[in-house]
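Why show two proteins at once? Because comparison is the fastest way to build intuition. When a single record is shown, students tend to memorize it. When two are placed side by side, the eye starts asking what differs. So, the first record is below.
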Amino acid sequence: MKNKKNLLIIVICALGTFLVIEGVLSLLQNLKPSISAQSVAIKPVESQISAAGSIHSESETTLHFQTPGKLTYLPFKIGDKISAGQTIASLDTYELQKELTAALNTYKSTRDTFDQTNANTQNGILQSQQRYGLEVTTRQGITGDSENSALNDIAKRIVDQNQANLDNSVINVELTNYALSLATLTSPITGVVTGEDVTVPNVNVTTTTSFSVADPSTPVFQAFVLPQDIDFVQVGSPAKITIDGLPGIVLEGTVERIYPQKTTLSDGSSAYQVDITSENLKNTGKLGQTGQVFIQSTARSNSMLVPIWAVVGHQYVWLVKDGKPVLQKVNVGETHGDEIEINGLSSTDQKIILDPKSIADKIYKIL
């Protein structure tokens, strides 16, 4: 009887083990469609970041008038050389000259009045002139220290008013002279004129009318790198520049500057400006020429990008192989936004599971 009971227990355990194995196999088979739905192709990181751009100058400027007016002087044309401090354009200043003359006349008159008032105060004349008014106002005689104190207070207020009038006349002269200076645009750098919105004088211009100057001796290739690539570019990275219209010529360069803010391009997209310098730009390219740059990526060789949440324990990823989940160890690199570099996957590793937690949860429930 005891042997029969033991045999029954063995049969039940064997049957239970068989059912568990069958369940595991069945669940793993059922995982296949959900894994497929949660997988994504791995994105390789290019060894070179390409970007379009054009040749600019490291020293360039665009000038605007701060007030509208009639353009009367335009001595330079596009392409002409210009020195720092030379006038590139100026407005009609006849009215401003007259306003300055009037302001100076007002200043002179106000200054004379101020000086005379000060002299009269020092000589006691101003106080004597105010005595009668003081007696009339109070309707009774005021004598002694009270009278002198009151007269001195009146004289001080008159002097202060004259001082204020003089100060205002000086301010008017300065403002008119400042407006006169704004009617002339001078180049802050030595270079060539690269742009003019108007080409002839005696026309009306506005504050949006522009005049551009650049120094051709300091050329730089100005490229625009897409946001998804900017993390793989750093100052000092080597680069190769090709110029449109110059086939077969490749210029060696270096990334000199990466601008922190995005720039909106003409097509409405956004990119980061990156300046690349090259010694050969001076002799090969000209300002305004377009081209392409290929910047050496900072990513490690054979790096791939995956979503950061797909990496388990900072060193594993779940791959789909033969329709089944397989845990694969990888080398982790830099993080770029919500993606991370990984190394260690072979060329046959095609897909990675985006939701590793769901795989772990299902296996954990089985065990």
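Second record. Ask yourself what differs from the first in the token line.
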Amino acid sequence: MQRSEIINWLRETDPGWLEDLWRLADQTRRENVGDEVHLRGLVELSNHCVRLCGYCGLRAANAGLQRYRMSDDEVLRCARQAVEFGYGTVVLQSGEDPQLTGQRMTGLIRRIKAETPLAVTLSLGERDDNELAEWRRAGADRYLLRFETSNRELYDRIHPPKADVPSAAKRRKSDRLAILETLRNLGYEVGSGVMIGIPGQTFDDLADDIELFGRLELDMIGVGPYLCHPDTPLADRRAWPDAPAGRQVPADEAMTYKVIALTRLVCPLTNIPATTALATLNTDYGREWGLVRGANVAMPNLTPPKYRILYEIYPDKACIAETGRKCQQCLSDRIKALGRRPGAGRGDSPNYHQRLAADGTSVP
């Protein structure tokens, strides 16, 4: 797809034309990844974080947040529930928590792999190469790390350095694209993504992001609207104004569907989730409309409700009071109502298998 086409679709508002985009994305999804919707059981095992991201409720400086860490036994109970519900994957997600050490996570990954048939996806922030390699050897299958925006200036403004490192290290900029390359070289299925509607983000920036998805050959791509927590510096929009009139990307539902659809067209073999953020914007149909506009993955939450309410990246998250069982039943019913079916097995990315074959590597 040409860059001019991407930008034209991002700016398109005519419902009739957009119906053409939805149909094309859904057809591309069906032809390349099928009708199964793969369910990933999400476990938010810690809300501790050393980052100072200007929009996120987990940021280290948020003194009003009650912090928690789940025990290994609590995480294992969630993993067993994932097996009971027929999920093929458990996703271990947290803030960037230094207490989730390489050794601790290695032990946890090994227990999950020994006691369940699940694929293990990690989303633990920026970690050093040795930890990533150790977790891969322990059996971790996938890693998710959003690069958030390909505009470096934009990224640096919303992602200040860590709160707990020496000043010299603080001045060292993070390089998430380099980490994604490390993950690929280690044999992980690699996932990334962006936020949509960051203050100052232009349509050109977002087109750059979508083009970068294709160049990175990602196996999983998650996109979602910019949702700012009220207890953060960027909650006051005067702290950082929007792009000039007519250039600012809106952080809304419609734009999120456009990016999902365009991502499917640019990366036809990639796994793309209909995210919780979509369900937050539209409780009734957000996930469903994501699934009929290019997405093929959903992430039901297995985190115990007493912790789930504390994992407040942004306010008013969907489904924070539901049990894991209720979430599973609700999502399964919604998927079947679309004429689709919950996926069976691990639900590996077809893109992952294709690039392994291209690299001459056997599938693990």
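One difference worth noting in the second protein: The chain has a mean pLDDT of 93.
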